[in-house]
């Protein structure tokens, strides 16, 4: 199980004429993180600061942050703290600042970057994901409607169907539910279904309200 982001989130706040523009998104590697940050900097080439933080776990366990010229500890670390305090992973957060001419002080900067970061992460739709497996179930036509109906009752994800001499249905389930799904497919078709593993895919288990 992991908590990550379903999409890309954005925010924009103004404090004492300084504008803070936040963007959060999902990443899968350090290279993804670098590209994400570079993309935000390219959008705002005339901005004074583009501060960031990112976290990866799994095959690569890394985190990184940068104040990008802001006073030490006022931007990158607060952004990293937001991500880590909510248990999020595989995500990057960038907050770009247009300076408005009024100094905010260290405390004011921490609050501003935190507010923009929190809003961007919330907008990115935090989710809980679990490992999933895709099964191809081959059934007879008379079993098709009932099988789909029963899958819907149990929240098995139907990814698609193919129609030939028999019907092939691709179903996404949690990895931990493999034995239960195989038993279900056999029972609901009175033993006529043929179930084969055809792939793996992450499964969104729950959309979360973290902020």
Shape field? elongated
Please state the oligomeric state of the protein chains shown.
single chain
What are the low-pLDDT stretches, counting only 5+ consecutive residues below 50?
A: none
Strands, total number: 10
What structural category arises from helix and sheet content? Answer: alpha+beta
Whole-number mean pLDDT:
95
Instruction: Please tell me how large the radius of gyration is.
Output: 23 Å
According to CATH, what is the topology of the largest domain? Ribosomal Protein S5, domain 2
How big a fraction of the residues is strand? 35-45%
Fourth-tier CATH superfamily name of the largest domain = Impact, N-terminal domain
Provide a count of the helices.
5
The CATH class of the largest domain turns out to be Alpha Beta
Domains (count): 2
**C-alpha end-to-end distance:** 19 Å
Could you give a short account of the major beta sheet? Answer: 5 strands, antiparallel
Write the layout of secondary structure elements.
Blueprint: E1 2-5, E2 9-15, E3 18-26, H1 30-43, E4 49-56, E5 62-66, H2 76-85, E6 91-98, H3 105-123, E7 126-139, H4 144-153, E8 157-163, E9 167-174, H5 178-188, E10 194-207
Antiparallel strand pairs: 1-7, 2-3, 3-6, 4-5, 4-6, 7-9, 7-10, 8-9
Helix pairs in contact: 2-3
């Amino acid at each position: 199980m992991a908590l990550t982001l379903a999409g890309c989130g954005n925010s924009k706040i103004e404090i004492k004429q300084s504008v803070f523009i936040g963007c959060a998104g999902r990443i899968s590697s350090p290279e993804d993180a670098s590209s994400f940050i570079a993309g935000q900097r390219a959008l705002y080439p005339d901005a004074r600061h583009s501060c960031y933080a990112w976290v990866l776990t799994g095959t690569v366990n890394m985190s990184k942050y940068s104040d990008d010229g802001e006073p030490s500890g006022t931007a990158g670390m607060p952004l990293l703290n937001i991500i880590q305090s909510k248990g999020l992973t595989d995500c990057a957060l960038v907050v770009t600042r247009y300076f408005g001419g009024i100094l905010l002080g260290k405390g004011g900067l921490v609050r501003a970057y935190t507010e923009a970061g929190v809003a961007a992460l919330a907008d990115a739709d935090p989710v809980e994901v679990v490992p999933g497996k895709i099964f191809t179930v081959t059934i007879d036509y008379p079993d098709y409607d009932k099988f789909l109906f029963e899958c819907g009752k149990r929240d098995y994800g139907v990814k698609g169907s193919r129609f030939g001499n028999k019907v092939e249905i691709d179903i996404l389930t949690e990895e931990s539910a493999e034995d239960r799904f195989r038993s279900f497919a056999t029972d609901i078709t009175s033993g006529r279904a043929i179930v084969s593993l055809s792939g793996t895919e992450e499964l969104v288990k729950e959309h979360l309200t973290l902020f």
